[in-house]
Amino acid sequence: MRPQRTEAIILHTFPARERDKLVVFLTPDHGKVKGYAYGARSMRTRFGASLEPLAKVRIGYIERESDEVVRIESVDLIRSLFPAQQNLAASVAASYLAETVDTFAQSGDPAELIYRLLDRTTEALLEGSVPLRVVAYADVWTLRLAGVLPSLRNCNSCDEPLGRPLRFDAQAHGFVCTRCGADHAQVIANDVAEVLDAIMRMPVSEFALRDVTADVLIEVRSLASFFRRNFLGHELKSFEMLTELIT
Ligand SMILES: [Zn+2]
């Protein structure tokens, strides 16, 4: 039995048995972890309200060699998501962030970068940033961290540097140069390409302050959606719901 104590962000919780919760949480050093919080559904639980999606916590748990699911011993709240949940769009955006990260984060491996992405994007929602900007940022960066986002600098077919306008070729699964994509590639508007660059370059706190129109963000998200569907074989459950609610 190995006791661990670490910072974590709760991704999802499920009711388990009569009084318990199964909790999926993300840690910087051990990636995604699943654990039982015994008695977490009873009235006087020692876990209080700390086991809510996207709560940032300090969590203590015990790993057993033979078991994939850890036993959660203690949870102390560092940052609750409560204020953002009073705003429907921010709340739906937060669920979407949790689903995205849950889909892409692995168990067992260090996940420092994706942890930091989730931490900073959640923080941005809590600070009242426009939800659509935050989710477009998270869409692009999760793909980037998963190694799924094709290069924005070099042609996906011949590796020549890309100019403007950017051309997207669904068959080549990426962006292509004028020569490779002359006849069939879709031309990406310069303001969309510029936003993709800005997302790569800036922390979310800075990107969220930029005045980007909803149309451009929707275009960025639909490109991200293409690469994600290609990789996963399906789209995330909350993608459509989110699009309806926050635009
Ligand atoms: Zn080329």
Main sheet: strands, sense, barrel: 5 strands, mixed, barrel
- In CATH, the topology of the largest domain is named de novo design (two linked rop proteins)
Going by CATH, the architecture of the largest domain would be: Up-down Bundle
Give the names of the bound compounds.
Answer: zinc ion
Assigned CATH class of the largest domain: Mainly Alpha
Q: How is this structure best described in words?
A:
- This protein has 247 residues and is of the alpha+beta class.
- It has two domains: 2-80, Nucleic acid-binding proteins (OB fold (Dihydrolipoamide Acetyltransferase, E2P)); 85-246, Recombination protein O, C-terminal domain (de novo design (two linked rop proteins), Up-down Bundle).
- Helices cover 40% and strands 23% of the residues.
- It has nine helices and eight strands.
- It has helices at residues 82-85, 88-104, 112-126, 131-145, 178-181, 190-201, 204-207, 214-232, 238-246, and strands at 2-16, 20-27, 31-37, 56-63, 70-79, 166-169, 174-176, 186-188.
- A five-stranded mixed barrel has the order 1-2-3-5-4.
- A hairpin with a 6-residue loop joins strand 4 and strand 5.
- The chain is elongated and about 65 Å long.
- The model has no long low-confidence stretch (mean pLDDT 91).
- Zinc ion is lined by residues 155, 157-158, 160, 176-177, 179-180.
